[in-house]
Amino acid sequence: MFDRLLVPTDGSDVAQNATEYATGLARRFGAEIHLVWVLSEWSPPLGVALPDDTVLTEAAEEFLTEAREAALAEGLDVETAILETDDGVTDALLDYAADSDIEAIVMGTEGRTGLDRLTLGSTTESVLRQSELPVFTVRAETERDRPTFDRILAPTDGSKPSLAAVDHAASLAVATGATLDILHVIEPAPGWDGVGTATLNDALEDAGENTLDAAVDRVTDLGVSKVERSLVWGVPHSAILKHAQKTGADCIVMGTRGRSGLTAELLGSVTQRVVRRSPVPVVGLHGPKDEEQGEE
Question: Rounded mean pLDDT of 35-49?
Fold first, then answer.
């Protein structure tokens, strides 16, 4: 499923959480880990106040050496790199991923300045928006040592980005033998232009069922043997998190762009909020470019 994983780090506890989860993924899939520290002129690591370039580099080298030795001691294949850039952390990471044939990226969702604070709204969100690779986001609450994939949740609104995520979730389910739960969330509609609320909601429910039918057929054709479908009403990000908790999902796979089935803003609002709050890893998938969506 994955042969090479990229793990950006800045030496923070949150970045370490991502490293621990990536280590578990590497054990499971036999993957090689690439630990990468990005240096920029405004990113002092490990609490050092305004260090010069030599101090920055030495701190990064020391941390990566220790991390590499720890991974090797566990029998894992690991590569380390220090990237220096003035063009932005995200660009440096994505260029490295392309050059190294990386297949997935694992990141913490909050941190400090070594990776532009690793907060949504900065590097992690930027990587989620721009990476064409799956991006695993990991919070402190995530079970990190032994990642499990008994149950995978894939919300969909029928758009190309969400279907790209469904396809990836299907591949992950096939590789792990997981149950794939495909979810469609409907927000109750207000009445407008003389059309009653009940009539609009009935139409939304019919459209949701059609979306689920198509997604189930899609993943069945991709070889998933255990598929469930769920249609729920509510505020999308809250409904997704509630459903994940209720069903015991081990991870959530979501597109990073979309349209109105998940409130018109699949990453701009919904995915971002799910990533910020989910105790289980969220796998973001960039999906097609906007102009490709227009070809539907």
Answer: 67
